[in-house]
Amino acid sequence: MQEQWQQQPCLIRQGFAQFDDLIEPEVLAGLAMEEGVDARIVQHSASSNQTEGWSVQHGPFADYEQFGEADWTLLVQSVNEWLPQVGELLTAFDFLPEWRIDDVMVSFSCEGGGVGPHLDQYDVFIIQGAGRRRWKVGSRQQMTNYQPCDDLTLVKEPFEAVIDEVLEPGDVLYIPAGCPHDGIALEPSLNYSVGFRAPSQAEWLMQVADQALQTEQLTTRYQDPDLNQQPASYQVTDTELTQCKRLLAEALDSSAIDDILLRVMSQSKRSLVEPELPYAPEQVNDLLLQPNALVGRTPGARWLYSKPHNAFYANGECYPISEQTQSLAHALAAIQQEIPGEELQAYVNSDKTRELMAELLNQGTFQLFLESD
């Protein structure tokens, strides 16, 4: 964290010793055939130069025969939200703030496959699965981007590599935002990319505004400053601009902004799946004691704690914690993989805890798996 994080790329040999793939290429290919899955194939003609011959196609895919056996890559976003075993990979990165984690993208590349030299605006850890891939990574620098085709942005000029290595299964490559990099598969290979979200100022402001409107916060309206005789009614004065900026600055410095930001941080990328039939609080204890009942965090859901506010946040909602509910709330936060429901039984011991548990299940933040599921 002191020497590499957001400073310089690094290669961790055998960061995952004796790594076993969490998904088979055939399963990944099948997932990319499903509606609602964000998947794309990037292909580059071996006969073309580096700046030509690129194409991008988006899923869902019906078959893959048209792409041949070389020079293409299948990329599937947010595989952790579709396959829990891929989501378990995230437990290795709990030394970083959970709200910063974006998703796990999984890619399969045929020999010669890659997406070209490019820059990412977020930090990423790339874990090598089956096969071998040669990676070149440069230090952070300003580079010229260009688009050889729709939906693909590459860097124009060559870069000097500070890392030029072949990754074997279990190796981990960390690439800070803004560092150019290029990976080419030497043989059919799988890669797992753990990306970290880094919203821009504009994205933060947009999300804060959406959340403030939903929760009816930041409602102070614009008022004119002391107006003097205007030179012309169509002229906007510096005083009026200053008044607008002051209004926005007051919003970002208000007592409500912490709550709004925490709601934004807790939002999931996609809508969470709610149970077909809602759970009633009075059902919770019996359900937890069902044979083989399991409780787990819904893939992609966040359950974030703010100590100064003594509240948890999930999917844009705030859950103030009382003396009665704090043990249950923190026990839920400690769940990294599915646990037997009976392990939560001791924490669900009052009307308030049963209400909290039922609400979290009904809103899809946590899931309850029963023997018949």
Automatic annotation (TrEMBL):
Its cofactor is Fe(2+). PROSITE patterns: JMJC (PS51184). It comes from the Bacteria. Residues 85-213 form the JmjC domain. Keywords: Dioxygenase, Iron, Metal-binding, Oxidoreductase. InterPro entries: JmjC_dom, NO66-like, ROXA-like_wH. One of its GO terms (molecular function) is 2-oxoglutarate-dependent dioxygenase activity. PANTHER family: MINA53 MYC INDUCED NUCLEAR ANTIGEN (PTHR13096), RIBOSOMAL OXYGENASE 1 (PTHR13096:SF8). This is Cupin.
